[in-house]
Design goal:
Blueprint lengths: L1 H6 L13 H12 L5 E8 L24 H17 L2 E9 L10 E8 L4 E7 L14 E7 L2 E5 L5 E5 L5 E5 L7 H17 L9 H20 L3 E5 L2
Helix pairs in contact: 3-5
Amino acid sequence: MAEAQTAGAHLIVHENFRFQPWYRAIKAELGQGSIGEVQNATFRLRPGDGQGPRAYLDRQPYFQTMSRFLIHETAVHWVDTFRFLFGQVTHVYADLRRLNPAIAGEDAGHVIFDHASGVRALFDGNRHLDHVADNLRRTMGEAWIEGTGGTLTLYGDGSVTRRAFGQRDEITVYPKDMSRGFGGDCVHALQSHVIAAMQGRGSLENTGQDYLTVLGLKDAIYASAEAGQKLAVDGGG
């Protein structure tokens, strides 16, 4: 960071999950207050690629030798996304485990985030299990954001629905994903955002300085799991 600042350079982390269109749609719904006061949020990671001795070998074989896996490689994307959606994190609690003896690191676990906004968010990750989707890598799981006025649900096809409190019917607020690019073409969305910001149209997200907070939270998750207790953190804004 210091070298970039000295050089007057923009240091931007290519963290594209927050640019997946379903999360932008959820952010817009939260900004409009469409589900009232948000109290709970859950994301269940279910990519279904972690079973057996050949897990990950066909696509990303280095996964098997990573001593820190589920959080360091995968959940870090939702650490950033949760901050994007719900704001500053004040505490974390983690319970991690390794289910597949063929790999070195953890591949399942639960992480609870307390946000200064009052939201309590749960990352529930298990790479052995799947979810309903034609492409398990599109959303990699499902999400529920629950408020006093209703619930937003993210499905495996990329669609987002809103159900009003006390009602049974769901309204689609973002349609199912039809793009060919990864994660709703989030790579292109991030690159477009950076170009626009560099041209003076909007402010940069995921600057290097801001992303240090994400890395700090990642390390705090491992520290919490090792200590077996909730930890207070400097979770940034």
